C-alpha cells in the first residue's frame, strides 16, 4: 500500500483568505483596463502585501490572527485496492481546443475598439476595497497609484478581453469593486461597542449607493458585476442586489432566483498545492497510488500525495464545490467528482468529461462501486485525460498581470459570453458511460 503521512496544518481560514486573494486579482485586472496614458494602478507595496507575503495579513481586526484546527484524514488506495485511513495533519496548449477567442484579441497591442468587453468601474470609497487591507490615501484619493512609469506593467501584457471605459453609457458591464470576501473574513463579527459588524454596515451602504445610481435604475442592476466568491459573503445584500451578475464559487447557499447559471459566473478557487509543470508531471506508471482524498483544507504533503496518485476524489462538503478539485487539476491527478449539484468554472468552453470522472452520489454509496470503476479505467484512457489536464490547468491559475487564458482572463471571457448553448452540451456529457471505456 502507498500512502503519504501528513501532519501539518495552516489555519483553516487560509482558504477564505485565498478566496479574497482571487477576488483581489480580478479587481486588479479591472484597474489595469484603462490605457497607459490614463492608468492609475496598484503600487508594488500593495501587491507584495497580497502576493509575495500574504501570510502577514491578519484574519482578525485585533491583529492576533485566528487558527481553527479541523480533523485530517487521507484515503490512500494501492493498486491492490487496500484502503488506508490515516489521521494527521500550461504548457503545450492547443488553442483550437479551449478558447474560442478570435485571433484579433491575441495581438500584442490591445485595440480598445476590438475588445470583447467594455467595463465601467465605480469609484467606490477605499473602505469598500483597499481600505480593508489597511491602505490609507489622501483625502480625495480613491485608488492606490504608482508614480514611476517603469513599475507599471506595460499595457499589452494583459489580455485584450476587457477594457475600461470612463463613461458608463459606453459600457457592456458595470463593475462593483467591493472586496466582499475579505470584508466577511475580517469584519463579520461585531467588535467592542459596535451595534453591527463592519461587514454588515458596508453591505448596507453598498445597497444604498447602487440603488441610488442612474446606472442601476436604468437596467435594474442586470448589467452590474459583483464578486462574492466566499460562500458567506454578501449575505445581507445579495437578495436586494440579486438582479446583478455575481462571480461565485458555486450556488450552494443561494436560492435559484438570486443566483443561477444563466446570469452568473462560476470562478475557480485558488489552488493551495504547488502547480506541477507539464514536463515534470508523473505519468501512469509513476503514480503508485490509485486514489487519493485530501480531507483537510491544507496539509504539508498534500501536493506530493496528489502528484503520486492516478485519481483524486472531489466529494461535496458543506458546499457543492471545494478547493480540492483545483488542487487535483494543478497536480494533474484525474479528478473523480462526486457532487451532484456542483457547478464548474468555464464549462461552456471546457468539457470536463475530457479530464474528469463524474459519479452520481447514489452510485458512490454502493459498496465497492467507486473502487471497481477506477480499477477498470485502462491506462490508455487515463493517459488521454492526463494529457488534457496538462493542457487546461493554466486556465485555473490566477496571475498578475493577467495572461491570455489564465483564470482572470477566463472570467472576463465568461462574462462576455453568458450563452448556454455549449454549456448545455457539455453538461450532458458528464455521466456519459462512454467515458469509462
Structural domain tally: 2
Strand content: 5-15%
In helices, the fraction of residues equals 25-40%
Could you give the order of the helices and strands?
HHEEHEEEHHHEEEEHEHEEHHHHH
- Mean pLDDT across the residues is 75
- The number of distinct β-strands equals 12
In the sheet with the most strands, the strands line up as 2-1-9-10-11-12
Q: Return Rg in Å.
A: 22 Å
Principal-axis shape: globular
Write up what this structure looks like.
- The protein has helices spanning 14-31, 44-52, 95-98, 180-187, 198-211, 214-219, 302-307, 323-331, 361-364, 369-375, 379-392, 407-417, 421-428, and strands at residues 73-77, 83-87, 117-121, 162-164, 173-176, 224-227, 245-248, 265-266, 289-294, 309-315, 334-338, 357-358.
- With 437 residues, the chain is of the alpha/beta class.
- It folds into 2 domains: 17-58 and 102-266, no CATH class; 73-96 and 271-404 and 421-436, no CATH class.
- It has a 6-stranded mixed β-sheet with strand order 2-1-9-10-11-12, sandwiched between helices.
- It is globular, with a radius of gyration of 22 Å.
- Keywords: Glycosyltransferase, Golgi apparatus, Signal-anchor, Transferase, Transmembrane.
- One of its GO terms (molecular function) is glycosyltransferase activity.
Amino acid at each position: 500500500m502507498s500512502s503519504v503521512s501528513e501532519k501539518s496544518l495552516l489555519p483553516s481560514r487560509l482558504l477564505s483568505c485565498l478566496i479574497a486573494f482571487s477576488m483581489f486579482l480580478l479587481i486588479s485586472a479591472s484597474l489595469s483596463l484603462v490605457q497607459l496614458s490614463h492608468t492609475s494602478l496598484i503600487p508594488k507595496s500593495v501587491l507584495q502585501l497580497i502576493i509575495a507575503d500574504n501570510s502577514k495579513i491578519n484574519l482578525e481586526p485585533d491583529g492576533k490572527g485566528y487558527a481553527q484546527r479541523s480533523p485530517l484524514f487521507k484515503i490512500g488506495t494501492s493498486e491492490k485496492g487496500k484502503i488506508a485511513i490515516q489521521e494527521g495533519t500550461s504548457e503545450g496548449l492547443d488553442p483550437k481546443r479551449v478558447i474560442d477567442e478570435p485571433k484579433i484579441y491575441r495581438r500584442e497591442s490591445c485595440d480598445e475598439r476590438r475588445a470583447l468587453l467594455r467595463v465601467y468601474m465605480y469609484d467606490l470609497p477605499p473602505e469598500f476595497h483597499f481600505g480593508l487591507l489597511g491602505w490609507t490615501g489622501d483625502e480625495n484619493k480613491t485608488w492606490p497609484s504608482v508614480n514611476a512609469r517603469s513599475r507599471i506593467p506595460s499595457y499589452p501584457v494583459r489580455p485584450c478581453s476587457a477594457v475600461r471605459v470612463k463613461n458608463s453609457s459606453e459600457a457592456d458591464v458595470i463593475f462593483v469593486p467591493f472586496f466582499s470576501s475579505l470584508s466577511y473574513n475580517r469584519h463579520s463579527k461585531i467588535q467592542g461597542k459596535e451595534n453591527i459588524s463592519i461587514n454588515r454596515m458596508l453591505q448596507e451602504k453598498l445597497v444604498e449607493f447602487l440603488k441610488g445610481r442612474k446606472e442601476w435604475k436604468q437596467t435594474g442592476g442586470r448589467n452590474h458585476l459583483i464578486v462574492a466568491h466566499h460562500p458567506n459573503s454578501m449575505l445581507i445584500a445579495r437578495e436586494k442586489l440579486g438582479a446583478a451578475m455575481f462571480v461565485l464559487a458555486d450556488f450552494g447557499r443561494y436560492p435559484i432566483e438570486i443566483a443561477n447559471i444563466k446570469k452568473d459566473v462560476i470562478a475557480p478557487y485558488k489552488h493551495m498545492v504547488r502547480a506541477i509543470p507539464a514536463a515534470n508531471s508523473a505519468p501512469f506508471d509513476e503514480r503508485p497510488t490509485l486514489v487519493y482524498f485530501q480531507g483537510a483544507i491544507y496539509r504539508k504533503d498534500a501536493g506530493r500525495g496528489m502528484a503520486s496518485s492516478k485519481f483524486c476524489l472531489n466529494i461535496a462538503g458543506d458546499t457543492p464545490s471545494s478547493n480540492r478539485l483545483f488542487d487535483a487539476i494543478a497536480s494533474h491527478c484525474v479528478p473523480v467528482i462526486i457532487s451532484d449539484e456542483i457547478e464548474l468554472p468555464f464549462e461552456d468552453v471546457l468539457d470536463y468529461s475530457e479530464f474528469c470522472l463524474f459519479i452520481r452520489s447514489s452510485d458512490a454509496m454502493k459498496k465497492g462501486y467507486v473502487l471497481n470503476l477506477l480499477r477498470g479505467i485502462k491506462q490508455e484512457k487515463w493517459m488521454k485525460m492526463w494529457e488534457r489536464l496538462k493542457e487546461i490547468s493554466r486556465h485555473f491559475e490566477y496571475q498578475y498581470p493577467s495572461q491570455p487564458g489564465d483564470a482572470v482572463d477566463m472570467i472576463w471571457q465568461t462574462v462576455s459570453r453568458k450563452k448556454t448553448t455549449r454549456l448545455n452540451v457539455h453538461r450532458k456529457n458528464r455521466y456519459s458511460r462512454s467515458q469509462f471505456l
